[in-house]
Each structure stands twice: as C-alpha cells, then as structure tokens.
Amino acid sequence: MRYQISGKQIDVGEALQTHVKAELGEAVAKYAERPTDAHIIFSKSASEYVCESIVHLSTGLTAQAKAHAHEIYAAFDKCCEKMEKQLRRYKRRLKDHHRDRAQPVEVLGASSYILASESEDEDSEPENLQPVIVAEMETQIPSLSVGEAVMQMELAEAPVLIFRNEQNNGLNVVYRRDDGNIGWIDP
C-alpha cells in the first residue's frame, strides 16, 4: 500500500510517519484485501490536532475517517479506530451479500461545481438568477449496485451519492434522510 502522509502547516516527523504506517497498515490489512493507497493529512485547529485519512480499496470503494484530539498521536489513534470500524462493517456487509466483486468498479467522468451561497440579506431579490460558480472540478461517478452505493456513501460519510446502477445502467441517487433512513432515487 502506498502512503501519502502530510501536514497542513505542521511538520510530520519520521516517528509519526512510522507510527502511522504500522498502525494503519495493521488495521487495514485485517479487514481489506489489497488496499491501493492511503492519504493521511494532519492539521491544527485552534488547540486541537485534526487527522483525516482516506483509504482507496482495490474494489474502487473509498473509506474516510476524521478525528480531533489535543495530542497528534491521539488524533491519529482515534482516526485509525474509526477507519477500522468502517472497514469491519464493510467486510461484514460483503459477507452478507454473498457476492465478491470480480472486477474493479467502473467510473464515469463528470464535472462538479461549487456554487456561491445566497447573500445574507434574504429579503432582497438577486440581480439575476444565474448562480455564481466558485469552483469547477472533475469527479467520478461509480458503477455500483444499490447495496454497494449505500455502503460507499456510509464509508465516505457523505450525505448523498450519485452512481450508475449496474442493473439498468441509469443514474441513481442514494441519500441519508432526516429520519436516519436511506433514500434511493431511481428515475
């Protein structure tokens, strides 16, 4: 597995990098076969350290975890525990599906935009109805089953996921509802 360990305005020393590789490698190897790479980012927010980890699996799915603590090692350990818990759930679900994915997930390229939020004065009418585009990026839309899409959404801790349904090849959406359940849109 390839590791990319970095810090945002923090020096990440050799001892921390060795600790990250050993602990995360052990946690990921226990539950995931053939992880491809891991990105670990350390940053500081006020008096707390923040650790964000992203692990890409060979199946095409991505697991993400984030944790805060007053010590940098404690932040990583919490993050590693969250990652291990997610991967344990992922593996259990794969066993429950009685189906192993023989080939990696196919992805379709798409554009992703970030739009400016509305002005603070909500009573005033905007000059035009065209939103201001703040950023434009490339993103990927995976080809998954509905169960895999729900699993990917939970692994990424995302509120919504757009995917190409493997059964009918149409674009579908799964999302977390306010009542805690998962919604599925199949146009």
Please characterize this protein's 3D structure.
- The protein has helices spanning 14-31, 72-97, 146-155, and strands at 2-7, 35-45, 48-57, 62-69, 107-115, 133-144, 160-165, 171-176, 182-185.
- With 187 residues, it is α+β, with helices and mostly antiparallel strands.
- The strands form two sheets. The protein has a five-stranded mixed β-sheet. The protein has a four-stranded mixed β-sheet with strand order 1-2-3-4, covered by helices on one side.
- α1 links the parallel β1 (2-7) and β2 (35-45).
- The longest helix has 26 residues, at 72-97.
- The termini are far apart.
Helix content: 25-40%
Query: Which regions have little confidence, pLDDT < 50, spanning 5+ residues?
Result: none
The main sheet comes to: 5 strands, mixed
What's the CATH architecture of the largest domain? Answer: 2-Layer Sandwich
Oligomeric status:
single chain
Q: Give the strand tally.
A: 9
CATH class of the largest domain: Alpha Beta
Subcellular location: Cytoplasm
Protein name: Ribosome hibernation promoting factor
Main location: cytoplasm
GO molecular function: ribosomal small subunit binding
